[in-house]
Amino acid sequence: MDPDFDEFLHVPARLSIVALLAPAGWVDFGFLRDTIETSDSALSKQLSALANAGYVTVRKGRDDGIRRTHAKLSPQGRQAFQRHAAALDRLVASIRASPTLPPGPEDEADRGAGAGAGGGDGAEGGRGALDSDGAAVG
Length: 138
Prior knowledge:
The protein is built from 5 helices and 3 strands, in the order αβααββαα. By secondary structure, the protein is an alpha+beta fold. It has a domain at 12-94: Orthogonal Bundle (Arc Repressor Mutant, subunit A). It has a 3-stranded antiparallel beta sheet. A hairpin with a 2-residue loop joins strand 2 and strand 3. The radius of gyration is 23 Å and the shape is elongated. Residues 115-128 have low confidence and may be disordered.
């Protein structure tokens, strides 16, 4: 595994939060919640985890008597996000550079079904041949 791949940060909710904070300064809690389509409690939990890891700074205050919470990516969080994004880029590049991946277990089973090991045309269960985009072929 790439040493820059950050398993803590890779959790989808955390990655969404950090990706939203990366190009911004202080971001309102409500905006974060609505944009990543989560609940107050789930967002609060993830922001706390990110803050405890030093990736996010959380500021609570009052604006015209209304409680407001804002979050901002810390310098450490920004570096972690940049390293993690670079690790993902390298992973995708290595997969794209691979000639052809060896067949997986599902591929082996599919080949056997149409080659006389079970008879039929390989379309059992409503599945026929699919191209790389998932469209029916033949």
